[in-house]
Amino acid sequence: MSDELESFVAGLPERAAAKDLSGLKASYAFVVDGGKAWTIRIDGQALALEDGAAEDVDCTISASDETLTRLLNRELGVTSAYLTGKLKLRGDFGAAMQLSKLLS
Predict the structure, then answer these.
(1) How many structural domains comprise the chain?
(2) What integer best gives the mean pLDDT of the chain?
(3) What share of the chain is helix, strand, coil (3-state, %, to 5)?
(4) What is the CATH classification number for the domain harbouring 42?
């Protein structure tokens, strides 16, 4: 797994503190194909980060390490990655759309 991806995930609580996430209440599982997984639970400004993919999340997002890294570097668009099958979403697509508040 890329150090860049690990660093990004580790920095999510700090990123959340700097964003206006009011009204956002959702949980996400991020799964790197054949690798690590994380669960992120957001309730307004509070963000909890856990190792592993929990089953009780609103949305599960999975992709290869390369795809996730390219998305973070804005070398690949989310829509393009999804339509070509490189990015997989399962669960509440509305929750997935709200994630842009944190990632932008």
Answers:
(1) 1
(2) 90
(3) 35, 30, 35
(4) 3.30.1050.10
